[in-house]
Write a structure and sequence with these properties.
2 strands; mainly alpha; two-stranded antiparallel sheet
């Protein structure tokens, strides 16, 4: 791989040979190309002719044009529209002088994009061109200067993309691209590893093996761990092997952990006194360890925790860099028995972790407690102790606003002389909202529920009209752990503030989320409350969206039809909740036979739904009796539940949907009524 030619400063100042400089005619042409891409094409023929002309101009000038900042971005827009033949020709031109294209500030980004786009066409037939060989030749040329490339600011990014291509994947762009490059991209960024090729060609498999062997045997491998350019190369390699070669992935992960000193044995006292491993506390090396934790198998991960971290987990949690590695470990072990030992060690110093604002560690502990129910009460008690609201007992009712705003009791309520006054509504923090959302999944969450239901009206409005708070209240209503009665009580508390919340940017989303998850009774409460001020709701820029999405106009003009529609919607939602995976069920439930499960589900839904209908009829019986169509709805409901309890216990989704259709009569009486109405209508028309 040839080195990039140097340009003398005097020659560069003159502008005659400045890299990437293009004449005005060429720049004007590519600006018109950019405008046409943004405008779009009328048909495929126009698009094909356009691409043919542009690639004719590009021929043999790919690298020179890519070195221009403006044209390089236009070329990145052009590549996704191109055919395999065009991408192959372009990539061959870029690879013809890899020393220049891979190490150039702008051309390297174009080369990365071309490699990623052409990867989709690997394995296609009909062109006769060997696209695979271009990738392999690029790697063969890079092997001669591997260490230099890994340390080069721009060439290292090309190497990352090449490794991912050999694995047939696209890795998250926070690993494959620089922060500046991600900020300048106008398209959506890839946030998770995406598999592009289901099956790899043999040349890619062997190249990936050779590449792994070459990097693993580098003399300066340990220096690469803390290099801002070489470190991400190792991250991409680990992710690639994780998808394509698990055995090699574990070997490389073990090699990195040994170099980091995370597999050495020692007693608890020695660990507590010794400093943390250097790689764990390094801003660059910690990222590699996070990826290692992600790809390592359970046995390897348990060795790391037992041999190197037990006894000094608090020290790790309090460190400004190492705590991120601990967060990844907590995510991995949250379903393993060792989580309980890790929890016990960290829970003792929860207030210290909060004091340094490492809230991610607290959130991961809460997520682990969802799986380990025996740790839920100790976690909540430690958290309330840290926020100074565990004693006296009446302070526990204020835990939700304290957790949400991430402040202690004294800070929130002020001095003792001011404690009796109404406190200022909380400013919801994102991490506080995420923490409470995890705790709402606890099976032992009585203290949290009581705090929600005892909050002052101003506090509820403040939470509902803030972005993190809107997600928190929606999670409260969507929780399958919390009973319907508690949710109805919560909606009743919000009743007087529904209009104020609905006329807020974030509050309008909150109202819609609460309405979607609410029971039928609560839907009526919200709808009727908003209908009282329909004109004001329509005049507000956010309120009118709530008016439309909740069909408030329909409620006010055709009240019974609106109610019937909500009855049908709620009934369908409950019936299909289990099918769509919209519920949290205990493991014992899934151990039952299919027949027992469906029968019990039908009986439970029927009982709950009948109770809600009875409540509604009890409160508005006179109004409902005026329209006999509700009887048809109840007959439809009975038909659906009777089908669930038939011998065999199996009912298709199609039959359920047909049975719940409002246009289909469920009983003989319903058929007679419909026929009678149809006959009367015909008679009226004939008259």
């Amino acid at each position: 791989m040839g080195k990039k030619p140097k340009v003398s400063k005097q020659h560069e100042r003159s502008g005659a040979g400045r890299v990437g400089r293009l004449d005005e005619h060429t720049m004007g042409y590519y600006r018109r190309v950019s405008e046409k891409i943004r405008e779009g094409f009328e048909d495929d023929d126009e698009k094909g002719m356009f691409l043919k002309n542009v690639y004719a101009e590009l021929d043999s000038n790919e690298i020179k044009l890519s070195q221009n900042q403006t044209v390089s971005r236009i070329l990145e827009m052009l590549l996704p529209l191109s055919s395999r033949h065009q991408l192959t020709c372009f990539l061959r031109g870029m690879a013809s002088d890899l020393g220049t294209s891979a190490s150039d500030r702008f051309a390297s980004h174009v080369l990365q994009s071309a490699m990623t786009e052409a990867l989709k066409h690997i394995g296609e037939e009909g062109t006769g061109e060997d696209l695979e060989q271009i990738y392999v030749k690029m790697w063969e040329e890079m092997t001669e200067h591997l260490e230099e490339i890994m340390l080069d600011t721009y060439a290292s990014h090309v190497l990352r993309s090449l490794i991912a291509c050999f694995a047939g994947i696209r890795v998250a762009e926070n690993v494959s691209r620089s922060k500046l490059s991600r900020g300048q991209q106008q398209k959506d960024l890839v946030s998770e590893t995406d598999v592009v090729l289901a099956t790899l060609p043999e040349s890619f498999v062997s190249s990936l093996d050779n590449l792994t062997q070459a990097i693993s045997t580098l003399d300066n491998l340990q220096e690469c761990f803390t290099s801002p350019t070489a470190g991400p190369v190792l991250e991409v390699l680990l992710l690639s092997l994780h998808h394509r070669n698990a055995e090699q992935c574990q070997r490389l992960a073990r090699l990195i952990l040994k170099h980091a000193g995370l597999l050495t044995k020692g007693d608890a006292e020695e660990k507590a006194e010794s400093t943390l491993p250097a790689l764990m506390t390094n801003p660059i090396g910690s990222h590699i360890l996070e990826v290692v934790v992600k790809v390592a198998n359970d046995n390897l991960l348990l060795k790391v925790v037992e041999r190197s971290l037990r006894g000094r987990l608090i020290k790790v949690a309090l460190h400004g860099v190492a705590n991120f590695v601990l967060q990844r470990i907590l995510e991995r072990v949250k379903k393993l028995p060792i989580f309980e030992d890790v929890f016990d060690e960290l829970n003792e110093e929860l207030e210290s972790v909060l004091a340094v604002n490492h809230l991610g560690v607290i959130q991961r502990l809460a997520a682990g407690c969802v799986c380990h129910t025996s740790k839920q009460v100790p976690f909540l008690q430690a958290l309330m102790k840290a926020f100074h609201c565990i004693e006296p007992k009446d302070r526990q009712k204020s835990c939700v606003p304290l957790f949400a705003s991430m402040v202690t009791y004294e800070v929130y309520f002020g001095d003792k002389d001011q404690e009796q006054e109404s406190p200022k509504p909380p400013s919801i923090q994102l991490q506080g909202s995420l923490l409470l959302q995890e705790m709402l999944k606890f099976t032992k969450n009585g203290t949290i529920l009581n705090s929600f239901l005892s909050m002052a009206q101003d506090n509820l409005v403040s939470i509902a009209t803030q972005d993190p708070g809107s997600y928190l209240l929606e999670a409260f209503m969507m929780s399958n752990i919390i009973g319907e009665k508690k949710k109805d009580q919560f909606v009743e508390k919000l009743k007087g503030s529904c209009f104020q919340i609905a006329c807020n940017k974030h509050g309008s989303r909150t109202i819609e989320g609460i309405f979607k998850a609410a029971s039928i009774k609560s839907k009526f409460v919200i709808g009727e409350t908003l209908a009282e001020r329909e004109d004001h709701l329509l005049s507000h820029p956010f309120g009118r969206f709530v008016h439309r999405n909740l069909s408030i106009g329909h409620l006010k003009t055709r009240k019974q039809d609106w109610k019937n529609a909500q009855l049908r919607h709620a009934q369908k939602r409950k019936l299909f909740a289990d099918i769509t995976g919209g519920g949290q069920a205990s493991m014992s439930r899934y151990c039952k036979s299919e027949k027992e499960r469906i029968t019990e589900q039908g009986e439970a839904v029927e009982e709950a739904f009948s109770r809600e209908v009875a409540q509604l009829m009890g409160s508005e019986v006179n109004e409902i009796d005026e329209d006999k169509e509700v009887d048809v709805e109840n007959d439809e409901i009975s038909a659906i539940f009777s089908s669930l309890s038939q011998p065999g216990g199996k009912t298709s989704v199609k039959s359920l949907a047909a049975a719940s259709s409002p246009d289909r009569p469920a009983t003989e009486d319903g058929k007679k009524k419909r026929k009678k109405k149809k006959k009367e209508k015909k008679q009226t028309c004939s008259d």
